[in-house]
């Protein structure tokens, strides 16, 4: 089968012909991949930017962790899954043996593996995964939209971390796919104003607006973040700021537009250290919280939304490509000219 792999710690990926996965072991299934999205983390791995050195010892590895598909084979001791079932798959694989998992927080497991990063993922026709990570979805579900489940869950979790509630003014820094997912999740929670902010980001801000942003700001227009927010709010600060840029300066700027007692949820992966006025943050009783990944309850909520409100998330998909055109998809993502690129192995 053709697979997109990271084979060495340098720029780029390779398209390789590799064997299909072996028969599933006990507790595992083989998923025939139907649709898989190129994530921002895949782009970072493609460029081999800082923050992904942990993968070095696992290379070569098949990338891809945002996917949907159909069960192709079932191992022993698997209950509730049958060949032909449509599924989405949680990419995090917790050990379920450590103290953290025993506390009921497997998403924080220190031994966690991740499909597409530390073990072979879904940029291929088939992938072997633990059955426990598979969530069945209705057979009639659009599997391209289902491949958006993982990034939408990351956005939903970021809104959990930021404690977004009805009536809030929420500022989303960064209009990439995670930022767009945050916008949608904030609107589902009843936020009255959701302001998406980018830099030279006209195309992605347009998608953010389609996902529910009430206002969009492109800082390339020559205004500061604070000026742009205050023009919209009449000088009032934001209740919640959610950072999804990966640029360290956005933490400093985000605190400057956040109300006293407000929460800044950081969802971006940063290659540089952030610098901000800690004393000012403490005096303002502001909080900075890390928002990474998602939990099973996010998946259950988002699947329900995709099944019942498919058109509310469809704007995220910019294009669909065959797996052998993955390089084109990466180039489009690097150019920031698209939102979500879906690869199809068929």
TrEMBL record:
Instruction: Tell me any Pfam family this protein matches.
Output: ADH_zinc_N
What molecular functions are annotated in GO for this chain? oxidoreductase activity, acting on the CH-OH group of donors, NAD or NADP as acceptor; zinc ion binding
Q: Where is the Enoyl reductase (ER) domain?
A: 8-343
Q: Which cofactor does it need?
A: Zn(2+)
UniProt keyword annotations, A-Z? Metal-binding, Oxidoreductase, Zinc
Family, similarity comment: Belongs to the zinc-containing alcohol dehydrogenase family.
User: What PANTHER family does UniProt report for this protein, alphabetically?
Assistant: L-THREONINE 3-DEHYDROGENASE
Q: Mind telling me what this protein is named?
A: Sorbitol dehydrogenase
Q: Which organism is it from?
A: Advenella kashmirensis (strain DSM 17095 / LMG 22695 / WT001)
